[in-house]
Amino acid sequence: xxxxxxQIMKIGLDLAGWKKMPADxxxxxxxxxxxxxxxxxxVGTAELMLARQLGCDAVIAHxxxxxxxxxxxxxxxxxxxxxxxHGVPKKIALQAVKRLKERVETRNHxxxxxxxxxxxxxxxxxxxxxxxxxxEYMRQVIFRAIKSGSTEHVxxxxxxxxxxxxxxxAATKVRVRFGSEKSKAGHWALVVAAGTNGGYxxxxxxxxxxxxxxxxxxxxxxxLTKMREEKLTGNLVVMGHLAGDSIGLNGLAERLEGxxxxxxxxxxxxxK
Length: 272
Prior knowledge:
Blueprint: H1 5-16, E1 26-29, E2 36-40, H2 45-53, E3 58-61, H3 66-70, H4 78-85, H5 90-107, H6 115-123, E4 127-129, H7 132-148, H8 154-162, H9 165-169, E5 175-178, E6 188-190, H10 199-207, E7 213-216, H11 221-230, E8 235-238, H12 241-258, E9 262-266
Helix pairs in contact: 1-7, 1-12, 2-6, 4-5, 5-10, 7-8, 7-12, 10-11
């Protein structure tokens, strides 16, 4: 069975149980009769050329490219939903997310965002990027894994996440970057599928409003340093970017294969 790029995007949305395409995902170059795809977390011109050499009919990127990278900051509002859900006052949540959005949106003006899409058009290679829907699928998988085990101590959360195949295969292991594995986990929040990690300001908002343990995919060292210097009280678990993204892309690949499309998963950790 052959698909078109619109159908591929719909499969990505179905993966998350969503109907609407988020701002960080897009069909950049349309295509039909797609029977074989290259799937990668980051896609540049080299990946497009490799896909052509491997006989692929389309390329699926995970991370935003083109207009999706320009609009990336628009999906950060999901952090507000998470924080309010976990007891952070909405006014404080909005302030924390505003800082994150401003930093990323300001950086957009320095980005050359059209190069990869331009290369795909020159090659005649259909190109799609699916970011937040794959991350939402990943969030659901991790959430179920944590809930299925003990959450008494931070170490219990670390162990539950570490048993997921993609994390088990990762060279980077699940770590407690702030706080202690021996601490009681208390009220915990899984903060993923909101575009990017919340950094210092969002973690601080959680810690100051009743959340004892925050779970990110990754954190910048500068943000971590601020938490330590300010002597915040709480625990920050960092799971690992590649392993987390691999969960979502493995889920997408399996759905595509179920629809009859051959997939080449490049740089994605195995889920077995």
